[in-house]
Write a structure and sequence with these properties.
two-stranded antiparallel sheet; four-stranded mixed sheet; globular
């Protein structure tokens, strides 16, 4: 993925202890591991992202009342480390692409989210942000939260890695922001309050798969800019497969339980990313009106 010459986003908040703490791209030296807490969160909760956080922050609000938080201040100026600049450039690409295609395809002006880089623990509009939760989008403050050590854990523990794979993760979270702008997340959150846990899980799968499809739409446009090749797309596909609920449950408990899926199987996640990538159209991403996920 070619990103080094791209502009830096003005919507990145660097709260990582003065803006550093992660030298080099994942896999290189200088990263700080987050130990057992992250590993258990990744395996036990499908990358540590409770879907209730994504569509209303219910779980995080509960945590936020009792868990300690870290006071942090955004660093002044853009990130100076390589990974910080990478995230900033990917965020800028999302801004440029969605600013163009969201009005065209959905008649909706794009309002870019903030992306918060933090270390270990921080505060969000949905409550406490913890590294063990993995990357997440908070609809309450319209911000994406990311601890960069997640990418190292994703590479070492889950078999998904590479710069475009990490960009796909960011694109997926921005996809949740698109859902929020389109009014999808508020409607889903209201519906979940009236249905069973099994039905709620199934609804969460549709939310997550649509975010994967939106990430594919973004990737379609990145390819049109000549900034990715087939190898980059393969990275994203391997990552989508690595974070399927079936693969994660097989790894953690030896058996997959479809009724408990909250993000979708490996096949579903790759299928919906591919759908958005091939079409470049938001209309192809309606996961709520199909019986074939």
């Amino acid at each position: 993925m070619r990103w080094e010459d791209y502009r830096q986003s003005e919507n990145l908040e660097d709260r990582r202890n003065g803006g550093g703490g992660f030298a080099g791209l994942p896999g290189g030296r200088g990263g700080v591991g987050i130990g057992t807490m992250v590993v258990l969160g990744l395996v036990g909760w499908a990358l540590g992202i409770d879907p209730r956080i994504l569509i209303g922050g219910a779980e995080m609000l509960g945590v936020g009342r009792s868990a300690p938080t870290q006071e942090s201040r955004p660093a002044s100026g853009p990130p100076q480390d390589e990974m910080g600049r990478f995230v900033s450039a990917v965020l800028a690409q999302n801004e440029d692409i969605w600013t163009k295609i969201l009005p065209q395809q959905a008649n909706r002006r794009y309002e870019p989210p903030k992306l918060v880089l933090f270390s270990r623990i921080d505060r969000s509009g949905c409550g406490t942000a913890q590294a063990a939760m993995g990357p997440f989008y908070c609809p309450e403050d319209k911000k994406v939260y990311l601890d960069l050590s997640f990418f190292q854990e994703m590479q070492r523990k889950l078999g998904g890695g590479g710069d475009f794979a990490y960009a796909y993760v960011i694109g997926h979270e921005v996809g949740h922001h698109i859902q929020n702008l389109l009014g999808i997340l508020p409607k889903v959150n209201q519906l979940r309050q009236r249905i069973s846990e099994r039905e709620s899980n199934a609804l969460s799968v549709r939310v997550e798969l649509q975010a994967d499809c939106f990430a594919g739409v973004w990737a379609h446009n990145v390819q049109a800019m000549g900034r990715i090749d087939q190898g980059d797309v393969d990275e994203a596909m391997r990552t989508a497969a690595a974070i399927g609920d079936d693969r994660l449950q097989q790894a953690s408990q030896g058996v997959a339980v479809p009724d408990s899926f909250t993000h979708g199987s490996s096949a579903q996640r790759t299928r919906w990313f591919t759908t958005g990538f091939k079409s470049g159209s938001l209309q192809s991403c309606d996961t709520f009106r199909t019986n074939q996920l």
